[in-house]
């Protein structure tokens, strides 16, 4: 499914059925998994900073998630409360865990892409002359409940990082309408595509833009403040030197991959938001 290059405009947004949303979400996850090189992350070439999962885990995980995005989209279309979406998402997480023998390949994506698919389906069921972007709809429809769910949440890495570093992570992104996707990821992706850069390379450029700024709770969990700061500084230096426009960009990222793997650093939250960016580029019009 190719993506196009013009600016995102909700008034030209395509209306996708739950089945088409499901296909789009799975395609977003596949594009992210396939892209190489991605510092610290799993690619078809190696498992990066992960010992419990590899590229095959991602392929199996995506297969196990087929149908989930249609299910949560149908719930979104009928105006389901956040608690109802949670039931659907928790069941999908269990299928992911079974397919990967206990590895957390897509927890963030189940959350982020699931909410965006639910919002897209709600928008399709409630036509308006001035439709809003999916991220803003997530914030409007479910933001308060997402923010409140932190207080009731059981222990998670994200929760521990929030307590230690006050980094909002996945919940803050979703409750705020995905500011990193709309202010960082999407402009980066669309600028690169508009220059004629091929899609896989543009997704890597998008990843580096997100890594340069995002409070990625995976980096904080594994590397603390120093791990996050070092990765952000390296991503910024890469972008400053031309990013994926420089001829030796792959070598630069392979080098970064080396030291990130040595320190077990993985920007899993940024990877999830690459997939979310690909998706909203499709959902919010091109
Ligand atoms: C609602 C939840 C998503 C709550 O999230 P919480 O804030 O409590 O954090 P986590 O449960 O730890 O997971 C959040 C995942 O979100 C990704 N992420 C991280 N930073 C950001 C960010 N700034 N913006 C957006 N997204 C972000 C990230 O996902 C990736 O990390 C996975 C690996 O994570 P983890 O296992 O923690 O780390 P490892 O390093 O692998 O662990 P070790 O090997 O060291 O042991 C990776 O695969 C990506 O997916 C975070 O992991 C949620 O937890 C929840 O409640 N889920 C149930 C379903 C639900 O209710 N959904 C709501 C309805 S849709
Ligand atoms: N390619 C990837 N590697 C590791 N964690 C991830 N989370 C989402 N995509 C990922």
Automatic annotation (TrEMBL):
It comes from the Bacteria. The gene is mdcB. Keywords: ATP-binding, Glycosyltransferase, Nucleotide-binding, Transferase. It catalyses: 3'-dephospho-CoA + ATP = 2'-(5''-triphospho-alpha-D-ribosyl)-3'-dephospho-CoA + adenine. The keyword Nucleotide-binding applies. Its EC number is 2.4.2.52. InterPro entries: CitG, TriPribosyl-deP-CoA_syn. PANTHER family: 2-(5''-TRIPHOSPHORIBOSYL)-3'-DEPHOSPHOCOENZYME-A SYNTHASE, TRIPHOSPHORIBOSYL-DEPHOSPHO-COA SYNTHASE. This is Probable 2-(5''-triphosphoribosyl)-3'-dephosphocoenzyme-A synthase. GO terms for biological process: prosthetic group biosynthetic process.
């Amino acid at each position: 499914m190719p993506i196009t290059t013009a600016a995102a405009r909700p008034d030209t947004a395509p209306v996708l059925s739950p089945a088409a949303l499901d296909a789009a979400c799975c395609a977003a996850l596949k594009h992210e998994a396939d892209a190489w090189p991605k510092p610290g992350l799993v690619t078809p070439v190696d498992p990066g900073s992960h010992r419990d999962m590899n590229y095959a885990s991602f392929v199996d995980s995506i297969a196990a998630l087929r149908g989930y995005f249609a299910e949560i989209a149908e719930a979104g279309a009928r105006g389901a409360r956040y608690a109802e979406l949670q039931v659907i998402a928790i069941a999908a997480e269990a299928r992911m865990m079974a397919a990967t023998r206990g590895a957390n390949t897509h927890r963030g994506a189940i959350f982020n892409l699931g909410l965006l698919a639910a919002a897209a389906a709600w928008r399709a069921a409630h036509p308006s002359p001035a439709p809003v972007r999916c991220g803003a709809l997530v914030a409007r429809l479910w933001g308060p409940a997402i923010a409140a769910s932190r207080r009731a949440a059981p222990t998670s890495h994200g929760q521990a990082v929030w307590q230690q570093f006050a980094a909002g992570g996945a919940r803050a992104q979703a409750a705020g309408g995905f500011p990193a996707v709309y202010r960082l990821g999407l402009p980066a992706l669309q600028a690169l595509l508009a220059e004629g850069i091929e899609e896989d390379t543009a997704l890597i450029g998008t990843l580096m833009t997100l890594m340069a700024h995002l409070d990625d709770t995976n980096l904080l969990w594994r590397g603390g403040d120093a791990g996050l700061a070092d990765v952000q500084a390296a991503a910024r230096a890469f972008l400053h030197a031309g990013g994926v426009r420089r001829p030796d960009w792959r070598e630069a990222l392979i080098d970064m991959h080396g030291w990130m793997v040595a320190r077990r650093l993985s920007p899993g939250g940024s990877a999830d938001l690459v997939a979310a960016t690909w998706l909203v580029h499709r959902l919010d019009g091109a």
